[in-house]
Amino acid sequence: GELESARQSFQSESGQSYPWVWFHDVVALYACLDMLDDRQKVILQSHCPELPSDEVISFGGKIEDANWMKQAERLAFARANVFVLPNKHAMPIYASLIQPATRIDYLLSGCRQMIAKQIMPLDPKYVYYLWLGRRMAIKGFDIVLQAFQEAHAQDPSLRLLVVGKGDPVCAPGIIDIGYSAQPATWLASCDYLISANRQSYFDLSVMESLSLGTPLIISCTGGHRYFKDVDSDGVVA
């Protein structure tokens, strides 16, 4: 379905007529390889914090699916004339796939200014930390859970709101919200956003937090090393 959707989009937008085509994931580029003219130039930007084939395994996919993705990412990178990253610190994620002839360009990611539709009536006697996003090891979800449990044992006034898809969490001080279509509401309502990635590209939740002015506690890994030298009271690295 994802392959067919990419092909339909390419055709409906008359992709064959453009001298340059920008793809934002390897699957979309792989799906359209046979429709690209040899004279067309391809820009590729993959936003994953790990290789797409590794991400398949992280999501519990089968080894044959990961092998298929390895072929797709290899062919996609072989076709790319330009590869875009947010900064040089994210380069190691894709170094094994980038071709010698491929040009590397850096374009810092951004997001539209978020506006919270409401502020949740959270009890002001507690301090609220927010986890926003996928509950994955590469995102450091287990690190946050363990650290919070240790902190909560010392200070019962701490609370951790968990927003996003994943297995339910039940522990003292943790409030599992589940998926929410209004991340701005939770970002604006909490005291801190926590980002503890083991490996980073450039997370949307980090940019959204900064756009709302919510203080950010972040591990400066990969592309997030950009924030290590940012002079801001809103960033604690």
Brief rundown of the structure:
This protein has 237 residues and is of the alpha/beta class.
What are its keywords?
single chain; 237 residues; alpha/beta; six-stranded parallel sheet; four-stranded parallel sheet; 10 strands
Q: Mean pLDDT score, rounded? A: 94
Unreliable residue stretches: none
What form results from the Cα inertia axes? elongated
Structural class computed from helices and strand pairing? alpha/beta
Going across the biggest sheet, name each strand in turn.
7-6-5-8-9-10
Tell me the quaternary state: single chain
* Share in helix: 25-40%
Gap from first CA to last CA: 40 Å
User: Could you spell the SSE succession in H and E letters?
Assistant: HEHEHHEHEEHEEHEHEE
β-sheet strand percentage: 15-25%
**DSSP summary: helix tally:** 8
- Work out the radius of gyration: 20 Å
Strand runs, count:
10
Describe this structure in words.
The protein has 237 residues and is of the alpha/beta class. Helices cover 32% and strands 18% of the residues. It contains 8 helices and 10 strands. The strands form 2 sheets. The protein has a 6-stranded parallel sheet, sandwiched between helices. It has a 4-stranded parallel sheet with strand order 1-2-3-4. Helix 2 links the parallel strand 1 and strand 2. Helix 3 packs antiparallel against helix 4. The longest helix has 17 residues. The radius of gyration is 20 Å and the shape is elongated.
